[in-house]
Amino acid sequence: LQQIGSIYLFTMELAPTSHRGKMLGYCSFAARIGSFCGPQAKLMFNWSKTGTLIIFASLAGLAGLACLRLPDTRGIPTPNTAEEVQRRSEQKTRSSTCCCT
Fold this sequence. Notes:
Layout: H1 2-14, H2 20-47, H3 49-68, H4 82-96
């Protein structure tokens, strides 16, 4: 039970301060869907072992690919407001465009 609380706490720290409540709602929603799918997966495993493994492997692969799209934030302080996130996004867009001709 303590590990679940730690995961919620860590996830909340990843979001800007103004969006933490919404992030908690999304994470809670995803956790409830996962807790619903767990027993169903056991029933599906009895029906088709290969199909169940393929579904879970593809979901894990998609999650890994989604994580590759996350920016590297090592050494960068976490933004506290949505405006800071917007400002950083605009700065990144400006710095990534090439104006060489």
